[in-house]
Amino acid sequence: MDIESWRKKIDAIDLQIVALLSDRAVAAQAIGKLKQATDLPVYEPNRERVIFEKVRAANKGPLPDIELVHIYERIIDVMRALQSDELASQRSASAKGKDARTGETGKQS
Ligand SMILES: O=C(O)C(=O)C[C@]1(C(=O)O)C=C[C@@H](O)C=C1
């Protein structure tokens, strides 16, 4: 296959990754709401250790285990932020053209 064909393959894979990450985020958000309702902490290090172990066990290469786990650490960081509602407020602020932290529009008056 030539470079263009491989790039088309990567574009198609990226669409699947985005859809799967969105599905994962919906599940994490649902867990976050259940945790809020039952006063459980967002951060569950034991559960995260189990996930990293499953990821290592599922890995057939060519990515080294350590790199895959790094990707997962980042994914779960983002899921935790979503559960704490930090990302939800950032997203709605940016949709309105506002700074998530200050709520300012960034336009000169
Ligand atoms: O399983 C949970 O308790 C979750 O909240 C989900 C999740 C994850 O994204 O996989 C997120 C945060 C926790 O620290 C552990 C795992």
Automatic annotation (TrEMBL):
InterPro entries for this protein: Chorismate_II_sf, Chorismate_mutase-related, CM_dom_sf, CM_II_prokaryot, G/b/e-P-prot_chorismate_mutase
GO BP field: chorismate metabolic process; L-phenylalanine biosynthetic process; salicylic acid biosynthetic process
Statement: the UniProt record of this protein carries the keyword Nucleotide-binding: no
Domain Chorismate mutase stretches: 1-87
Span list, region Disordered: 87-109
Record GO terms (molecular function): chorismate mutase activity
Entry GO CC: cytoplasm
Pfam family, one: CM_2
UniProt keyword Isomerase present: yes
Basic and acidic residues bias: start-end ranges: 96-109
Descriptive protein name: chorismate mutase
